[in-house]
Design a protein that fits this description.
158 residues, mainly alpha, 77% helix
Length: 158
């Protein structure tokens, strides 16, 4: 059923993809970039049902792939990550975490996502250098965890 809340969330997701592609894709630290779409999906896992989160992960991952010409890598890795972590994230949704606990949850989620992304990209032989492993698995994971932890500090919804 299409509700205005779902449409609004979908448009928020499109805005986050625009921020990801326009701003964060060009803001790299040691070759790694933060994944704001991943952080949005982790936040959705705390608020929505598993079915909704899987649908959002698939659509937003596909839109992100369309913008950066990866066609399926983000969609697969984000959908599989939501499928794997939803139960855990939903179970801890009502806990009040301090900064380092939020950092570790986001760090683990980003590492799992980037491992899935890199594993799927090996089949298509998209990346062929060791530098990509460093920038994607280490720098990108840490940058995403720091950005997510900072957003946790400045949020006002809870």
């Amino acid at each position: 059923m299409i509700r205005s809340e779902n449409i609004r969330t979908f448009f928020y997701g499109i805005g986050i993809i625009a921020i990801q592609v326009v701003l964060l894709r060009h803001l790299k630290i040691f070759g790694g970039e933060a994944d704001l779409v991943l952080l949005f999906l982790l936040w959705l896992c705390l608020k929505r049902t598993m079915r909704d989160c899987l649908i959002y992960a698939a659509f937003l991952g596909l839109l992100q792939d369309a913008m950066v010409d990866l066609w399926g890598l983000n969609m697969f890795s984000k959908t599989l990550l939501v499928f794997i972590l939803y139960g855990y994230l939903n179970r801890i949704a009502h806990s009040k975490f301090i900064f380092w606990q939020v950092f570790l949850v986001i760090l683990a989620s980003a590492l799992i996502h980037n491992l899935l992304f890199y594993g799927v990209s090996l089949f298509s032989e998209l990346y062929s250098s060791d530098y990509v492993v460093w920038s994607l698995l280490v720098a990108g994971t840490l940058f995403t965890a720091f950005l997510g932890s900072f957003l946790h500090l400045v949020r006002d919804d809870i």
